[in-house]
């Protein structure tokens, strides 16, 4: 059975857009408004969706769309200038300006709102507000019940506060600032949620881990919990790589993956390219079906249930625990 994550086929189509507006939204956060050069409508998207942005030097990064999904004339993204950047956020902040042209993918959604949810609880930490604010727009337009809690270290690091204050759903928004002694009481908020509430969490890995732990303590049904990481979290676990063999079922080709080499790179060297984007196990672009063997999951994309099933994995970062793994390629 395919994971719910894999229901959307990956599109390789790209288009060129122009940066119509760039603005500082908070300390270290810039927003970008992207439009079609000829003024044509952009492909529709649903709340929680992201786009791939192709940057100078061949970098590809994923950014959540943060505007109202009902808008068709623009895409809006916001980017945190991460001091530990591998080059993507630095390029967006320092090298991309108004009037520049960027190549982007069609929107993809691995963090979609559940249909017909009775109530939704939206939790955002820092830059994690980007998909969450789009979800708030969509839920308000649907007339659905929801509550939004937005957390940041300080007001200077909190983006879109003016937009949230002016939103027609402003009374459903709660801001929590660590430096003002207003840190979010996760246990209280989760315990007070109505039955069958869907929980959506996005932000730094530590914030997500705290929210998921609180949900577990509250006995939250895991099927109602949805999260999206912006980078693969560090587990602190040291795993020693070993070599193993990958077999491509459709051709019978066998490829040895050496220590320190990813499956994606080993396949590329043998002439087999698969779609890949983040290379951190976050975006799900390279999700691949496993026919035989035991995956060594190292991603932040699959749920624990999907990992336990063992029939899919992300070869950009994951490996094999068995000496041989057979892929549906």
In short:
This protein has 329 residues and is α/β, with parallel strands linked by helices. The protein is 18% helix and 30% strand. The chain is globular and about 60 Å long.
Provide structural commentary.
The longest helix has 14 residues, at 129-142. The strands form four sheets. A six-stranded antiparallel sheet has the order 4-3-6-1-2-5, covered by helices on one side. It has helices at 88-94, 129-142, 161-166, 186-191, 205-217, 263-269, 304-309, and strands at residues 14-26, 29-36, 50-54, 60-64, 75-80, 101-105, 119-125, 145-152, 173-177, 198-203, 225-229, 244-248, 253-257, 288-292, 295-296, 312-313, 319-320, 324-327. The chain folds into three domains: 14-105, Translation factors (Elongation Factor Tu (Ef-tu), domain 3), CATH 2.40.30; 119-229, 3-Layer(aba) Sandwich (Rossmann fold); 244-327, Ubiquitin-like (UB roll) (Roll), CATH 3.10.20.30. It has seven helices and 18 strands. The chain is an alpha/beta fold. Strand 10, helix 5 (205-217) and strand 11 (225-229) form a beta-alpha-beta unit.
What secondary-structure arrangement, pairings included, does this model have?
Blueprint: E1 14-26, E2 29-36, E3 50-54, E4 60-64, E5 75-80, H1 88-94, E6 101-105, E7 119-125, H2 129-142, E8 145-152, H3 161-166, E9 173-177, H4 186-191, E10 198-203, H5 205-217, E11 225-229, E12 244-248, E13 253-257, H6 263-269, E14 288-292, E15 295-296, H7 304-309, E16 312-313, E17 319-320, E18 324-327
Parallel strand pairs: 7-8, 7-10, 8-9, 10-11, 12-18
Antiparallel strand pairs: 1-2, 1-6, 2-5, 3-4, 3-6, 12-13, 14-16, 14-18, 15-17
């Amino acid at each position: 059975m395919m994971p719910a994550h894999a229901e959307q086929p990956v599109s390789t189509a790209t288009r060129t857009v122009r940066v119509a507006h760039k603005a500082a939204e908070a300390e270290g956060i810039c927003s970008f408004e992207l439009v079609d050069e000829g003024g044509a409508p952009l492909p529709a998207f649903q709340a929680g969706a992201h786009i791939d942005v192709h940057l100078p030097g061949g970098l590809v990064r994923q950014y959540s769309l943060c505007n109202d999904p009902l808008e068709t004339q623009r895409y809006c993204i916001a980017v945190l200038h991460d001091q530990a950047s591998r080059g993507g956020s630095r390029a967006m902040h320092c090298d991309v300006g108004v009037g520049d042209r960027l190549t982007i993918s069609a929107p993809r959604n691995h963090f979609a709102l559940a249909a017909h949810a009775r109530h939704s609880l939206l939790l955002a930490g820092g830059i994690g507000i980007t998909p969450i604010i789009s979800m708030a727009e969509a839920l308000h337009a649907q007339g659905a019940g929801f509550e939004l809690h937005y957390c940041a270290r300080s007001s200077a690091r909190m983006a879109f506060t003016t937009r949230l204050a002016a939103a027609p759903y402003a009374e459903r928004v709660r801001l929590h600032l660590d430096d003002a002694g207003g840190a979010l009481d996760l246990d209280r908020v989760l315990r007070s949620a109505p039955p069958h509430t869907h929980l959506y969490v996005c932000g730094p890995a530590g914030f997500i881990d705290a929210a998921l732990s609180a949900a577990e303590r509250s006995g939250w049904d895991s099927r109602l919990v949805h999260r999206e990481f912006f980078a693969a979290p560090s587990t602190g676990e040291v795993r020693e790589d070993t070599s193993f063999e990958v077999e491509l079922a459709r051709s019978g080709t066998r490829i040895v993956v050496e220590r320190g080499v990813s499956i994606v790179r080993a396949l590329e060297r043998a002439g087999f390219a698969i779609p890949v984007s983040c290379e951190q196990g976050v975006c799900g672009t390279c999700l691949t079906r496993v026919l035989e063997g035991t995956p060594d999951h190292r991603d932040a994309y699959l749920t624990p249930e999907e990992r336990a099933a063992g029939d899919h994995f992300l070869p950009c970062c994951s490996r094999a625990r068995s000496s041989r793994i057979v892929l549906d390629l």
